[in-house]
């Protein structure tokens, strides 16, 4: 009997025995944490100790944290992995995210090897059974003699030494369910929590959601993954047939373990709650023959507020009977399905974005940029899930390969700390790609090795990050340990387009979308509705100091340079005809003659790239508008127009 069949039998026996009730994190009739802390104290041979010491403390047992802890232990550091949750694996094992957003490079090779590749091979690929994944994670931890696990703690707080504005993280203080506290001192600390909780509590600055691009209310939707039973092998074959031959979407597909698609069907779902949405289905088979479905969006969730998360979870649970009935009636292959449960935790896609020594930008990602301090690689599409009900998700662009610099793991203001995972130093759009688990696990492995080097060399992480020589030594160490961190050079032809700077400006605001094929349509004629939308968004998101916020209506004619002039003047608080508006801006020296020449060659019709360039120029120029009116060549004209 092979191990897969044996595992299936074990899972079946456990399910047949009835549900197993787990206590809330940190709580239970018999608290294993108290024994665990006693074991630590006995190991240190300190009677009734309240303080213990480790070389490395990793906070958070998501896949990124496990990679960091395993890496630290393999680099001969006495390492502690600590979490408030009762089991390891985080998003994969408690959020039930059973598929991996893979990052492939040229030649379709997996970009991040090392510890991530070990895990990937052991679970059998990019779609897996979540219980088996937890078993694999536990075995990876148990294999390391220098790695200790401390789970189910009630609270984890930073121990910070302050010297003026300088801060140094000395370790963490954990609190048991019974209120017992233990100070754990560390020579290095890695924050692998999903929301960079430890870093934030220690004083690391951060942005939240999309506030850094002028969209403070925008945050990618959360998801509650749920389980369906009674999906037979024949049902699965029906799903596969539909997705391959009838779905009519090149992005849909299926294999033996996963299915993805049905967007044409799911867009017809009408949720009972206004906070709920449904996208296309991501379906993953489990060893007990059930399937997990990642598709339910929950909006207006504050991931940093436990009450908000709980309300969101209750809303999603209340929606599930209605949703499952819809799936039974409409999705081929699910007519016999029944709801069989939901994940212990929400799948939170976005919250904090820490401020680091270097912020990975959307331009870095989509220009396929390399860095001297590369520690991980990404290539996943910049996938921005919906932020509000009724709003579609978008793919901003699709990189071929980019590097994540070590500096993006080094937070500002606090020393002796690295941050890995989705809350590391990325801007909110770059995060749409870099938040994937292979990138995070590569960062974790690099962070564990960096801790060993920093301790050995008696340097801070900040000093190491700024030293190309230290970064080369770190990369050499990681390459010896299974990673492949070689320089690369992949150009992106769109960077040579004359309107690329305009595209970057609009794209940085999240308003230019290239999709999976990076088609931004820069040389297409720009609809006036698109121009009005981008101009309005740019004014609002940048806080441009315009004089008015007019309502601009669309017309049926092509968008011309005079139309653009008219719209700009409306934002300047000036009512005038289109030709007058063009002449007025000319008198102020607004127009770039080379750009005007390009427009004239196109019969004065505006292309998308030119439209982006003009909006960028207007937003930058309007800051000096008052002085241009006061001191410029158009002073007399401006006075006349104001009367």
Rg over CA atoms: 27 Å
Q: Please state roughly what percent of the residues sit in beta strands, choosing from under 5%, 5-15%, 15-25%, 25-35%, 35-45% or over 45%.
A: 15-25%
Helix content: 25-40%
Count of DSSP-assigned helices = 22
Question: How far do the termini sit from each other?
Answer: 92 Å
Low-confidence stretches: 1-48, 633-643
For the largest beta-sheet, the strand count, sense and barrel status come to: 8 strands, mixed
- Number of domains as seen in the coordinates: 3
User: How would you state the average pLDDT, rounded?
Assistant: 90
User: What is the 3D shape?
Assistant: globular
Derived from helix and strand composition plus strand pairing, the structural class reads: alpha+beta
Structure report:
Helix content is 37%, strand content 17%. With 643 residues, it is α+β, with helices and mostly antiparallel strands. The chain has three domains: 310 residues, FAD/NAD(P)-binding domain, CATH 3.50.50; 121 residues; 149 residues, no CATH class. Strands 1, 2, 5, 6, 7, 8, 22 and 23 form an eight-stranded mixed β-sheet that branches. Strands 10, 11, 12, 13, 14, 15 and 16 form a seven-stranded antiparallel β-sheet that branches. It has a two-stranded antiparallel sheet with strand order 3-4. A hairpin with a 5-residue loop joins β14 and β15. The N and C termini lie far apart (92 Å).
Keywords for this entry:
alpha+beta; seven-stranded antiparallel sheet; 22 helices; disordered C terminus; FAD/NAD(P)-binding domain; 37% helix; globular; 643 residues; eight-stranded mixed sheet; disordered N terminus
